[in-house]
Every structure is written in C-alpha cells, then in structure tokens.
C-alpha cells in the first residue's frame, strides 16, 4: 500500500512555544565521541541528525538552537568525524552524527567513523527518532538509501528533513518532494511526514523544534 508523506503541519501555538522555550534554554556541548564506549549514559531521550556530507546539517542545528557556532558549519564535506552530543537542558540529547558519503578525508578515517555511525544507530536504546536530512536540490540518492536501510534494520524510526528549501523554486521543490515520497515507499521505518526547512529563512524551524520537544516528553 502506498504511504503518503505530506509536509508536517505547523505546530499549535502551545507546541510551538514549548519548542521555542526548549531551544531558548541551555544548549550545551557535552562531548565528541569516537567509540561506542565513549557515549554518555543513556539516561534521557535523544534524537539524532544524519545526512550526506554538506547537506546543511550543522547549519540546521545552529538554526534550531539559535546559536551560530554551536555546530561547526563548513564548506568542506566530511568535516564532522565524531558523534557530537549536545544537551538540551535536562530534557534530552541532540546528537550530530558524522556526515556519510563523500568526504575529504583518508579512506581509513572515513571507514572508521562510518562504522561508528552504524554501531550507534543499531545499539542506542534511548534513541527516539533519527532525522534523515535530504538536500532539496538533489533529493534522495543511493547513499541515502543505504543509511535508511540501516535504520529500517535497526528498527529506528526516522523522519526526513528536507534542507535548503530556499535554494530552489516552488516547482522544483514540489518535484523534489514527490521524488522523496516515492523513494520513501521502500523504507518501513520512515515516519509519514516530511519537515521542509530553510536554515537561512527559518522555514520549518518551529515545526522541528516542536517535534523534538514532543519526543523528549513522550
């Protein structure tokens, strides 16, 4: 049966305010993790952000938190080589995963952090949802299917966040969303709503904040 993947609705005023307050509160870098035994205690819910190198992940995290430098944004693909943990007060963890796919780094280094990413997704009991970032200009690529398949196999629910929506026109964006919806039919762990965002323009930020706040409460 074909599953619909509409754009997530705007949050209620109450949910939007709760999300705003969450991210207006303390957001602290906890640690960068290079091995599974370095993970913080699994003592609270967490959400993670995964995406191809240069998909706009750091910029999105900066936009969510309202803090320009909390996640380092770089034009060099593959700069993030650790699992970076941020604490949203005592509410939950926000986890920035290493970019996957193309990276300007030695092959052995890439292989090591890709293996860590897979181990994390398969073995973190407090992970409530993964956010799979897809560039609005490119849609779902083969490498995205690889990480989504891993999420399927790990029984980790994931929700697609379309980034850089301001970089293309409305007609092209509609075509991208149709392509994403079609490709997601292959993935049973996909949550049936898309979040369409622009870190520069603020589109979708309130929606994503409200979703993350709700996951930390549920």
From TrEMBL:
Cross-referenced InterPro entries: G_ENGB_dom (IPR030393), GTP-bd (IPR006073), GTP-bd_ribosome_bio_YsxC (IPR019987), P-loop_NTPase (IPR027417)
Name a GO CC annotation attached to this entry: cytosol
MF term (GO), any: GTP binding
UniProt-listed PROSITE patterns: G_ENGB
Q: Is the keyword GTP-binding assigned to this protein?
A: yes
The entry assigns this protein to a family as follows: Belongs to the TRAFAC class TrmE-Era-EngA-EngB-Septin-like GTPase superfamily. EngB GTPase family.
NCBIfam families reported for this sequence? GTPase_YsxC
- What is this protein identified as? Probable GTP-binding protein EngB
Q: Which organism is it from?
A: Paracoccus sphaerophysae
